[in-house]
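Predict structure. Chain length: 94.
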Amino acid sequence: MAFVMPAKSAADKLPQPNESGVTLKQIPGGEFAVLCFSGGRSVKTATNAVAQLKAWLVQEKISPVGEPIFAYFDPPWTPSFLRRNEIMFRVAKP
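Prediction complete.
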């Protein structure tokens, strides 16, 4: 699980986690190629989304950088066809 804080939030001013398994991590901004998709959180769904976004990147001659980042926005009880998910690849600037 992740929470996104506004860029103007100073890292040293954010509340510190109460649990040892929770950490704060700063991810630098950048340009990303993003694909929205629906469905449950399964290996098959994720694999299909990765393949679809990679195919689009190749078609557009855009180079992905690093591993994909997944974002799942809905609770587990939301029917899979109503779920909003995203896959993101950081992309190299031209």
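Summary: The first strand starts at residue 32 and ends at 37.
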